[in-house]
Protein: Pilin-like protein-like
Organism: Synechococcus elongatus
Amino acid sequence: MDLQTPASRAQIQSGFTVVETLTALTISTILAAVSFPSMAGMWGDYATRLAQTNAQAQLMILKREAQRTNRTCQVTFANNLATANPPDCLVSMGRSLSDSGMGFDLGVTVSGSLASVTFSPVATTTPSSNGTLRFSHAWTNTTRCLVLSQPLGVIRLGTIQQNTCVKDGGS
């Protein structure tokens, strides 16, 4: 019987070999490359939906503030910014509509025919024609929209289909 002392035993190897590490790295890279387009599309959709909701919230608050304070409040949309006049009509205005609120920009482009809206204390709005804001992102094919209907300022959310804003089912 051959008894070996602990010092003479073969050392037990631990860890990964180079081949195992490269195999795991290759598989991880392939999975990341396959999933990126889907994740990018989800991010783009999230970003446009958030910018659309930000604009809706700012318009609703401005409309209520005009009624509450019994004065006229105006909002102007330019270069992805919503600016209130007078400024104290809404304290959160002046922030980019594509601002995430977490310190980074969502990359959403805001465009459309709604350049300026004035809310009166008696719940009417000017201009007299409907206005539309469009929200788009480079990573998604979906363009979201917000329509402000005149003369009462009813806000409708939707998506652009065949160059028309079609109401979302859940809005």
Notes: The chain has a mean pLDDT of 79.
